[in-house]
């Protein structure tokens, strides 16, 4: 609004995935839509992470906001290197061969990736209950994880969007990057290492998003929650042991400092007696 007529487009992740899973507030996205409409700017949703993961329609199922352009990543290639964008006809018709704008790229039209993508998307659209199942499993894992964390007095925030899930070791709700930075990354590193040893491979960074796939079952989720329970128990026990060791170390240090203090007093007393006995001024 401060620069009318000078901003051509605005791009945003409606469901951020590379700072952990942090969906944008719907009210915020609605205001962006209004501002773009009012100023003739193009609203672009980066759905490289959320496209066909949050739902068949990406973030739209959760915010109901229609972007002018949407970008997608390797999910449309069935995991193969691929990328694409789509949008409203008024914009897409500007592209060759209909329009004058030529677009090409390294990830454009690779036949293997396109075949994998067609197969993947065909299965997605043929299975009308797919995202309900994925969301159910993601919620089961998130709730189970939060429950076992609470059991050990560990603060944890969880979020689910379709097949996507995320969690932060913090007592406060995470709504932006600054909030995410307040999470306990050292605890996450310990938890990740424990889970890995128990056969559960989570993202190696606190600032990543996890995904549920159709090959998973409730038994897999229960296995992961059990592993989390055991991991939290080990971490709490380890912390208690480290705290006890630290208390012992501090006690020894305090004792040594007291003995050093007494030794200094004794040395000063000896020096004073020597000075007096030798008759030094």
CATH architecture of the largest domain: Alpha-Beta Complex
Individual helix count? 8
The best one-word shape is elongated
Largest sheet: 4 strands, mixed
CATH superfamily of the largest domain: Aspartate Aminotransferase, domain 1
Rg from Cα? 29 Å
- Percent range for β-strand residues: 5-15%
- Helical coverage, percent range: 40-55%
What is the oligomeric state here?
single chain
Low-confidence stretches: none
Q: What structural category do the secondary elements indicate? A: alpha/beta
How would you describe what is shown here?
The protein has 281 residues and is of the alpha/beta class. The protein contains eight helices and nine strands. A four-stranded mixed β-sheet has the order 1-4-5-6. A three-stranded antiparallel β-sheet has the order 7-8-9, covered by helices on one side. It has a two-stranded antiparallel ribbon with strand order 2-3. 25% of the residues are buried. The mean pLDDT is 91.
